[in-house]
Amino acid sequence: MILTVAVSGYRSLRNLVLPLAPLTVITGGNGVGKSSLYRALRMLGEVSQGRLISTLAFEGGLSSTMWAGPEVLSRRIKSGEVPITGTVRSKPIGLKLGFASEDYGYAVELGLPAEVSTFSNDPEIKTEAMWIGEKLSRNNAIAERHGPSVRVRSEAGSWSQAATSLPPFDSMMTHATDSKDALELLHLRDRMRNWRFYDQLRTDRDAPARKQQVGTRTPILASDGSDLAAAIETIREIGDPVTLDETILDAFPRSSVEVHAKDSVFVLSMRQHGLLRPLSTAELSDGTLRYLFLVAALLTPRPSSLMVLNEPETSLHPSLMLPLARLIKEASKRSQIIVISHSPVLAEALSEDDVLAHRLEKDTGETVAPAAEQVSWSWPKR
Questions:
Q1: What is the pLDDT of residues 21-46, one digit of tens each?
Q2: Is the pLDDT of residue 79 over 70?
Q3: Closest by alpha carbon to 2, among 291, 304, 252?
């Protein structure tokens, strides 16, 4: 389980460190930084896929995504005693992402390119570190990257060189893993590749899920929901069909879903009480289809170590908030889940003693979580 997530220098997340639980709910008003936190978490996942640089470049590059406020926010600035003015920076510009789990921690820092290039939107990876435990220190680091150089620590405690000319756009997570000399790095990379993010589930008229699809066994729902029918049928075959049926009944009383396959083409339909025929996905409302997406994602027969849901309540009727909360709680028994939500009803329904809730706010342009427990955190040095 991830115990802590940390972001520094990304949009309004000047320096945010949050503790996490098996089920964590993030709430707050519009513009407080919830979407930025979601993107930061997703970028952490992109590290293990080798897509961090391209993802950041598509957002406009480091210069357009970095913290736009002053380097230091003093009490006098926050109180309004002195105006906010630009100053000469004393530290290099950087975007930092990191997390610490029950066994390993990882952090990466990106900075501006050292040389002018045609690829001006591509930042460079300046430092990376992996360590054992909850906080990085000189004694528990097991892999370090500074510029093009990567070194790893053996079980005996000695350091060895894993790379000497790693390009600034490649991560040690993808180019310095080794089953013999860097087994921990390999293990953490594979775990991060298993993380799942859902925020682009398409319900529009032309959504792939509204059309017939060629189906294969699908234990993991696609990020856009295109393979919904195959994912539902996979749950029936190798997952928990009883819970699947109960979950549908909980949200839609006296209703059921069924999948028909012909010549490898899968069609999902929904039977509702009072109708003489089932409704195809093309006929379902946006909210009903979106709820089926969430059912397929959360009841996956191959649970991930981490699942992040961004505004899962979108398009859902208020009557579905309680069933959705029950579904998320059930899924959190098998996966760590972070829910980022605008809905106070959903947040309240998820609220229990073992659920951690963070409410984000803005303070002088900076995203903060005033009620969050203070967690000690240390970034790797350049």
A1: 999 999 999 999 999 999 999 999 99
A2: no
A3: 304
Q: Which two tokens stand for residue 378?
A: 């240390």
Residues whose CB is less than 8 angstroms from the CB of residue 273 and which lie 6 or more positions away in sequence, other chains included: 253, 254, 255
- What SS3 class is residue 62? helix
Q: How crowded is residue 351: how many other Cβ atoms within 10 Å of its Cβ?
A: 11
Distance, CA of 173 to CA of 361 (rounded, Å): 33
Q: By CB neighbour count within 10 A (0-12 exposed, 13-18 middle, 19+ buried), where does 168 fall?
A: middle
Report H helices in the chain.
Answer: 34-47, 52-58, 62-65, 75-79, 172-175, 183-193, 228-238, 241-251, 286-298, 321-331, 344-350
Q: Return the minimum-mean-pLDDT range out of 179-183, 245-249, 336-340.
A: 179-183
Q: How high is the pLDDT of residue 240?
A: 96
What angle is formed at CA 164 by the lines to CA 106 and CA 105, rounded to 5 degrees? Answer: 5
Per DSSP, helices labelled H in 109-227 are 172-175, 183-193
Amino acid identity of 157? G
Q: Is residue 129 within 8 Å of 106, Cβ to Cβ?
A: yes
Answer yes or no: are the C-beta atoms of 366 and 12 closer than 8 Å: yes
Rg of the Cα trace of the chain? 23
What backbone phi and psi angles, to 5 degrees, belong to 218? -135, 85
User: Would you call 178 exposed, middle or buried from its count of C-beta atoms within 10 A (0-12, 13-18, 19+)?
Assistant: exposed
